[in-house]
Write a structure and sequence with these properties.
Layout: H1 2-25, E1 28-32, H2 38-51, E2 55-59, H3 63-69, E3 77-80, H4 82-90, E4 100-105, E5 107-112, H5 123-132, E6 136-138, H6 142-153, H7 157-160, E7 164-166, H8 172-177, E8 183-187, E9 197-202, E10 211-217, H9 224-234, H10 239-244, E11 249-250
Parallel strand pairs: 1-2, 1-3, 6-7, 6-8
Antiparallel strand pairs: 3-10, 4-10, 4-11, 5-8, 5-9
């Protein structure tokens, strides 16, 4: 009995040491995200916290805030479309060897809440819906670029120019909620379920050109090891269902 008691005490002591070391090694990570990746990254952050002892804060800064935080040592990771991340690499703010694609976000269409939902199930119906709309809005980012390319491919750019609004800053659904235009097009993952708007569906066929987001380690990170763990988690099999909850597709299915 005394031998068993000594064994049990040793196990408890060993467990206590392990937990203490785990707490000591826990990191507080900060991820700076682009608008299009934000919903998915928040899901990934919560998932990573469940399987690790690290804590993760997700921040979507404005332009000046991003510039400051990628260089002042208060953040560890940054996400963005490939071109943006490449600019960070060239500027010395992101380690090139860590840049990792992790998500693809397709394009969708929404209308003002309560407005009739057009049929956009085919390219022809989508084109007809754009021509019939009183006004159209889409962003200037990746999704807006792809929407504009699709409209150009349809040969509708001149006809739609006078009733098209290119948004700045907030998501397209903000403009729909304020009734600033009738139809809004952007990434599906930041349109579904937003008050003041009704989601219609994804753009049809080859016009649905997804936007890719990459993640990279900031050179000023104070927690590079934990940040690298987070990157590995973001492209792991466990991450895929978390991303799909937010209406996007993982790079690694």
């Amino acid at each position: 009995m005394r031998a068993y008691a000594r064994f049990a005490a040793a196990c408890i002591l060993g467990a206590s040491v392990y937990v203490s070391q785990g707490v000591a090694d826990a990191a507080d990570l900060v991820i700076l995200v682009n608008q299009g990746a934000a919903p998915g990254v928040r899901e990934l952050a919560a998932g990573f916290e469940r399987v690790s002892e690290h804590r993760v804060t997700v921040i979507q800064p404005d332009g000046p805030g991003l510039v400051q935080r990628i260089s002042d040592g208060t953040a560890d990771l940054v996400t963005g479309n490939p071109g943006v991340i490449e600019e960070h690499v060239r500027g010395g703010n992101v380690m090139a060897s860590t840049v990792t694609p992790f998500v693809l976000a397709g394009l969708g269409l929404s209308v003002r809440v309560g407005a009739p939902k057009p049929d956009i199930s085919t390219v022809e119906f989508y084109a007809a819906a754009l021509l019939a709309a009183e006004s159209i809005g889409y962003s200037r980012g990746c999704s807006g670029t792809h929407v504009a390319e699709g409209i150009e491919e349809l040969g509708l750019t001149p006809e739609l120019a006078s009733k098209t609004i290119r948004t700045e800053g907030g998501p397209v659904t903000d403009y729909l909620a304020r009734a600033e235009f009738e139809i809004g097009i952007q990434q599906t993952n930041i349109m579904v379920g937003v008050p003041g708007s009704d989601y219609v569906g994804p753009l049809p066929g080859l016009l649905n050109k997804p936007c890719q987001s990459n993640v990279g380690l900031l050179t000023v990170s104070q927690e590079p090891d934990a940040a690298r763990e987070m990157i590995r988690f973001m492209v792991s099999p466990e991450a895929a269902p978390l991303l799909r909850r937010t209406h996007v597709e993982p790079i690694n299915p």
